[in-house]
Specification:
Layout (H helix, E strand, L loop, with lengths): L10 E6 L8 E9 L5 E3 L2 H7 L6 E3 L10 E8 L11 E5 L11 E3 L2 H9 L5 E5 L2 E6 L6 E5 L13 E4 L2 E4 L16 H15 L11 H7 L3 H14 L7 H7 L6 H10 L1 H85 L1 H6 L1 H9 L15 E3 L4 E2 L3 H14 L4 H16 L10 E3 L3 H11 L2 E7 L7 H18 L5 E6 L6 H13 L18 E5 L20 E2 L19 E2 L2 H8 L15
Parallel strand pairs: 7-8, 14-20, 15-18, 15-19, 16-17, 17-18
Antiparallel strand pairs: 1-2, 1-5, 2-3, 2-4, 5-6, 8-9, 9-10, 11-12, 13-16
Helix pairs in contact: 3-5, 10-15, 11-12, 11-13, 14-15
Length: 612
C-alpha cells in the first residue's frame, strides 16, 4: 500500500462505462495535481498500490456526457458498497478540462517535435497527426515512444491513453533505447516484427548476425537497428506470453518451444476461457444474424405482399375498365340494331314507293352509266373569292402543324383536340391515297375546322357550294362553280384552290361525284365539260361536310367515300379559355405542298364514323 494520500490531492483521470445503460463508471487515475498545480503521472505500480481495485476508481451515478473525457475529481473512500468483496470508491468530479495550462499535454507539428527532441525537453507528451509521442529521460537516455491507436481507441495495458475532444493522448509511458524517433518500436511491436520475420523467412534468432545483405536490403532496415530488435527480442523471451496467432505462427520453429510451453502452462485457464468467450460470442453473433435474417425475410415477405396487393388492385381496375368497354360495345350494338331496324323500315318504304323511284331513274342512270359527257352550261355568274396574305411564308411541315394548331385553339378547340386535328388534317392535305394519287377530296366534321384550316393556309382561291336535295347529276356540281375552279386551277398552278361542298349527304353522293371518283380511281382521264383540263388539278382540293341523319339526308356507304380523305367525325373538346390565342400572319404556297408530297406520306384508311 502506498503512502500517497489521494484525499489531499485532485486526481486527474479518464472515465469509461461498460455500456450506455450502466449506472457507474470506471475512472482510471492517470496522475494528480501537485502543490504547484503541475500534473504528476502515476506509475503502474503506484496506481495498483493506491487504488486496490486494479488501479481504478468507481464513479457513482456518473454522467454520460463526461465519459472518455479528461476530468479532475476528488475521491472519497468506502461510501458505496454494492459488493463487499471489492474496494469501491466514490468520486466528486469537476467539469471537463477545457484549458489546463499546467499539464504537459500539447499538440505540435513534426518539425516542432524534432526541435523538442534536440533541445532535450523530456517528460513531455505530444500528439502529431494520429500518432501519440512521449519524450522521457528514463535511464538517463533521450528518446521517443510512439503509440498507434488500437481498435478501442482509448487505453492499452502499458500506456494509459485518454481522449480530449477529437484528440487521443498518451499520459504515461517509457522507453529504454536511444534511437531516433522514426526507428523506435514498442516491446509489442518488436515481438510482432521478429515473429513475422521468423515465420516469413525462417530466421534463427540465435544466428541473426548471419542474415545476408540481400535480405537486409529487402527488409529495408539498417543492420544495427535490425540487430537491436533481435537483441531486444531475446531479452524479452523470458517474459513473452504469446497470443493464439503467435503460437500458430511459431509452432513449427523449435527455437521458441520453451516460450510456447511456458505460455501455454501459465495461461492455460485463460486460453480455455478465451475460447469459451469466443465461442459464446460466435453463437451470439449467429443468433443475432438469424434474428436479422428473419427480420429481413419478414420485410421481404411484407414487400412482396404489398406488391401482390397492388397488382390485384390493378387487375380489378382493369376488369372494371373492360366491363365499361363491354358495356359501351353492347350499347353500340344496340344502336346499330336500331339503325338496322330503321334501314329495314326504309327498304319497306322503298318497296312501297316504287313509282317514285322509277320517276327518279335519272339518278340511277348517272350512277350506272357514268356521267353526262356534255354538262349543261350555267348562265349564273360564278364568283371565286381570292384571299392573300402579307405575312411570313411557311416552309416546314412542323411549322404548318403548329400554325394550324394555333388557329384551331383560337376557334375554341382545346389544346389536345387542336393538336390532334392539326396533325391529321395537315397530313391529309399533302398525302396520297392507296393508289398513289393526290387526295383531292377531304371530308371534315365541321365548318369550324374548315375555317381554321383556310386561315392557316392564308393565301388561296375559294368557292363555297351548298349541295341541294334535288341534285341528281354531275351537271349540278359542275355548273355550281366546279367548272370555274377547274379552269382557274389549271391556269394558275402556283395558287391553292379550295372548293367547299356543304351538306354533301343531302343528295346521293355518287350521282354528282361519280366522274370525280372515276378520275381519282384512274378509270377516266378527263372530267366532262367544255374545258381543256386533263385529270384533276393537283392544286385543287374539294372539302366536304355532311349533315346529321334526318328525313332528308341520304346514308353514306363505304363505296361512296372509298377514295376520299376523312378527318374523324367525333366529339372534340372545346375550351373558352383558349379563345384569346394570338396568331401571327403566315401562309403556305404550292411549292411547300409539292415539297411535302415528295415525302411520300400515305393515307391508308378512313374512319368508320362517316358511315351510316
Amino acid at each position: 500500500m502506498s503512502d500517497f494520500d489521494y484525499k489531499l490531492h485532485k486526481i486527474i483521470g479518464v472515465a469509461r462505462k461498460k455500456s450506455q445503460e450502466s449506472l457507474h463508471a470506471s475512472i482510471y487515475p492517470l496522475g494528480y495535481q501537485d502543490g504547484n498545480y503541475h500534473f504528476q503521472p502515476f506509475s503502474r505500480d503506484m496506481q495498483k498500490n493506491i487504488f486496490l481495485h486494479n488501479g481504478t476508481v468507481f464513479g457513482y451515478k456518473f454522467r454520460d456526457h463526461l465519459t472518455d473525457e479528461l476530468i479532475i475529481l476528488h475521491i472519497r473512500e468506502n461510501e458505496v458498497k454494492d459488493d463487499p468483496s471489492k474496494d469501491v470508491y466514490s468520486a466528486d468530479y469537476e467539469t471537463p478540462i477545457i484549458k489546463y495550462d499546467h499539464t504537459p499535454i500539447i499538440n505540435i507539428n513534426k518539425s516542432g517535435l524534432r526541435e523538442a527532441i534536440k533541445q532535450g525537453q523530456c517528460n513531455s507528451y505530444y500528439k502529431v497527426g494520429n500518432r501519440i509521442y512521449y519524450i522521457t529521460d528514463a535511464d538517463s537516455k533521450k528518446g521517443i515512444v510512439k503509440y498507434w491507436p488500437i481498435e478501442d481507441g482509448l487505453f492499452d495495458t502499458n500506456n494509459n491513453m485518454c481522449r480530449f475532444g477529437d484528440d487521443v493522448y498518451l499520459i504515461r509511458g517509457d522507453i529504454k533505447y536511444p534511437f531516433k524517433y522514426s526507428d523506435i518500436l514498442t516491446n509489442e511491436e518488436i515481438i510482432k516484427y521478429i515473429i513475422d520475420l521468423i515465420k516469413q523467412y525462417n530466421i534463427d534468432p540465435e544466428k541473426h548476425n548471419e542474415i545476408s545483405d540481400d535480405l537486409i536490403n529487402v527488409l529495408g532496415v539498417p543492420t544495427d537497428i535490425l540487430n537491436f530488435r533481435f537483441d531486444a527480442f531475446k531479452e524479452l523471451l523470458p517474459s513473452i506470453v504469446l497470443t493464439q496467432k503467435n503460437i500458430l505462427d511459431l509452432a513449427s520453429n523449435p527455437i521458441l518451444s520453451d516460450v510456447l510451453q511456458r505460455s501455454i502452462k501459465e495461461y492455460e485457464d485463460e486460453y480455455i476461457k478465451t475460447y469459451e468467450e469466443h465461442n459464446r460470442e460466435t453463437i451470439k453473433k449467429i443468433e443475432n444474424a438469424k434474428v436479422q435474417k428473419l427480420k429481413e425475410v419478414g420485410d421481404e415477405c411484407l414487400r412482396i405482399e404489398k406488391e401482390h396487393i397492388a397488382k390485384i388492385n390493378l387487375i380489378k381496375e382493369d376488369i372494371k375498365a373492360q366491363e365499361l368497354k363491354l358495356k359501351q360495345i353492347i350499347d353500340k350494338i344496340k344502336t346499330k340494331e336500331a339503325k338496322a331496324d330503321t334501314i329495314e323500315q326504309r327498304f319497306i318504304d322503298i318497296e312501297e314507293h316504287k313509282n317514285r323511284l322509277i320517276e327518279d331513274f335519272s339518278i340511277i342512270r348517272d350512277v350506272i352509266g357514268g356521267h353526262n359527257q356534255n354538262p349543261r352550261i350555267s348562265s349564273t355568274i360564278i364568283n371565286i373569292e381570292s384571299v392573300t396574305c402579307s405575312g411570313e411564308q411557311i416552309t416546314e411541315f412542323d411549322d404548318f402543324c403548329n400554325h394550324l394548331t394555333s388557329h384551331l385553339s383560337k376557334s375554341c378547340f382545346s389544346y389536345d383536340s387542336a393538336t390532334e386535328l392539326s396533325k391529321n388534317l395537315v397530313r391529309l392535305f399533302v398525302a396520297k391515297n392507296r393508289l398513289n394519287r393526290e387526295i383531292a377530296v377531304i371530308l371534315l366534321p365541321s365548318l369550324l375546322i374548315f375555317k381554321s384550316l383556310i386561315d392557316a393556309i392564308g393565301q388561296y382561291k375559294l368557292r363555297s357550294i351548298s349541295v341541294g336535295a334535288n341534285w341528281k347529276s354531275f351537271d349540278d356540281l359542275y355548273c355550281s362553280g366546279l367548272e370555274n375552279m377547274l379552269i382557274s386551277a389549271n391556269n394558275n398552278p402556283e395558287e391553292i384552290h379550295i372548293l367547299l361542298l356543304q351538306n354533301m349527304n343531302l343528295s346521293y353522293i355518287p350521282s354528282y361525284m361519280q366522274p370525280i371518283n372515276d378520275i381519282l380511281i384512274g378509270i377516266s382521264r378527263k372530267l366532262p365539260g367544255d374545258h381543256n383540263v386533263v385529270g384533276f388539278p393537283s392544286n385543287l382540293w374539294i372539302f366536304g361536310t355532311r349533315t346529321a341523319i334526318n328525313e332528308e339526308a341520304i346514308p353514306i356507304s363505304k363505296s361512296n367515300i372509298e377514295e376520299y380523305g376523312c378527318v374523324e367525325f367525333k366529339d372534340y373538346a372545346y375550351s373558352e379559355d383558349e379563345a384569346a390565342v394570338i396568331v401571327c400572319n403566315k401562309f403556305i404556297t404550292m411549292e411547300f405542298v409539292n415539297s411535302q408530297r415528295e415525302e411520300g406520306r400515305r393515307y391508308k384508311s378512313y374512319p368508320d364514323s362517316y358511315l351510316d
